[in-house]
């Protein structure tokens, strides 16, 4: 009897799940466990720290400071861009800090065992990777920071580290060279034209063959060469120490702003201030000298002329004053002593009689004529009203006859 379908399903699942797990384990890149970067102490201020000697052949560049415990330095004239601490307390302190950092790196864990695996062609995430004896790098090793702000890579190598010709370490997604640590148990040999990144810490010695570099290239690179108990040997090499803060977040690319043409500002002419007409000083009329004998003459006052009605005749004795100008200038006053300046005055004598002086009649003409015209107009209006009343009386008999014809009055037999 065939097995029912509902009984075959669990058996199929028990077969598929182990196969999927095996495939994932073979295809996924090794994932290291989170690590804490070891403290370099004062050694972090140097690009090279060595114990016995530092030798150089060819033209090398050390971009950073140098520390050497022993006195022997060969071929480094003009090579070091920073300061050189040789045989002093600062060099001894840096060497001690290198030993402490090496112990921290090798004692970190837990680690992912990669013994016998060539690092070339691998892509690793932040973590701790362990090699029981030696480690090799042929090709390109990619260290992927994953955008983390504490992306730390630690390689625990039991004996030696060897790189092939043209090998390369590439940093991506926020990985920093200053957070990559190579803790080598004995010596490290960096092959020709290798581009290594990170802090190379060897307990014995470091040999860099022709054209090998540490900390050079694109990305957030940087590196150092530390030989705890031996020498550092150079041959036309470049070592560039990391700069800036370590484990900084990966910068977010910003879109390039398209420049917008700014409008050209047109110069605005400053407003011309309008001239302010200042008060025109009127000449002060000189008072006429008072006579020593006779009645006192009062001080003449200038009368304010009342505007006349349109069409009224103006006597020729009084000239029309000129209209003020557009700027508000005031016309000059008439000369003292003229009839216009005196106006019209009615001086009273000692005995109370009133006399007219000079052209007084001519001056008061504008006031007498309008009054005369007003009286004449009123008289004419009265005459017209009387004429209308007389006309109405003349039509009275006719009206009475007409009204009587409509039966309002008494009837005739």
Q: Explain this structure to me?
A:
It is a single chain. By secondary structure, this protein is of the alpha/beta class. The protein has helices at residues 5-27, 89-107, 339-342, 360-394, 396-405; strands at 48-50, 53-57, 61-63, 66-68, 72-74, 84-86, 112-113, 123-124, 127-131, 135-137, 140-144, 153-157, 161-163, 168-172, 180-184, 187-190, 195-196, 198-202, 205-208, 213-214, 223-227, 232-235, 238-240. The protein is rod-shaped.
Quick recap of the structure?
This protein has helices spanning 5-27, 89-107, 339-342, 360-394, 396-405; strands at residues 48-50, 53-57, 61-63, 66-68, 72-74, 84-86, 112-113, 123-124, 127-131, 135-137, 140-144, 153-157, 161-163, 168-172, 180-184, 187-190, 195-196, 198-202, 205-208, 213-214, 223-227, 232-235, 238-240. The protein is of the alpha/beta class and 413 residues long.
